[in-house]
Amino acid sequence: MNPPATPGMLQALPADHRHRLMRIARDVSFPMGVRLFEEGGRAGRFWIIRTGTVALDMRVPGRRAVVIENLGHNELVGWSWLFGPHTWHLGAEATSPVRAHEFDATAVRLMCEEDPALGASVARWVGDILAHRLRSARTRLLDLYAPYGSGSLM
After folding, report:
1. Ranges for the Cyclic nucleotide-binding domain (predicted)?
2. Which CATH number covers residue 36?
């Protein structure tokens, strides 16, 4: 069973915070197969998907990268930009053509420092997404590597 999805930015942030962030967004697109970032690289930006899909993956020694989660419309791609040392914990690849809003991480962190209410809203939003992704990753890894899959607790 998959953990419940987290709300997108449109539902998670108060309207004034959402509008302030969207003022600094830049529209970008990626063709299928493009790597948005690699595990261990510098996390200097993040995206909210408008159309298309992005696979989050992680390296597994001796194997090819394992897809942890697939993201789509209105979902956040990247959370490592918010927490030091600002390096990616996973990799990401466009699995279809993607159109997205791109945000400069430094600019957003500065906005959050200047406005503690905005910072708290962003931290709650990203924290909820991070918790969801950790549950998803655990389930996916158990399905792949545990002798009996993720199973269910009795």
Report:
1. 9-78
2. 2.60.120.10
For residue 42, the 8-state DSSP code is: B
Q: Which helix (H) or strand (E) holds 129?
A: helix 116-145
Our count of domains for the chain comes to: 1
Q: Which domain holds residue 133?
A: 9-139
Chain-centre distance for alpha carbon 86: 13
- Domain assignment present for residue 145? The answer is no
pLDDT, greater one: 45 or 152: 45
Give me the pLDDT at residue 40, please: 95
The per-residue pLDDT for 150 is 55
pLDDT in tens, 53-71: 999 998 888 888 888 889 9
Asked whether residue 105 is domain-assigned, the answer is yes
Q: What is the 3-state secondary structure (H, E, C) of 43-97?
A: CCEEEEEEECCEEEEECCCCCCCEEEEEECCCCEECCHHHCCCCECCCEEEECCC
Q: The whole model's pTM is what?
A: 0.84
| CB 30 within 8 Å of CB 96 | no
CB 18 within 8 A of CB 76: no
Residue 144 domain flag: no
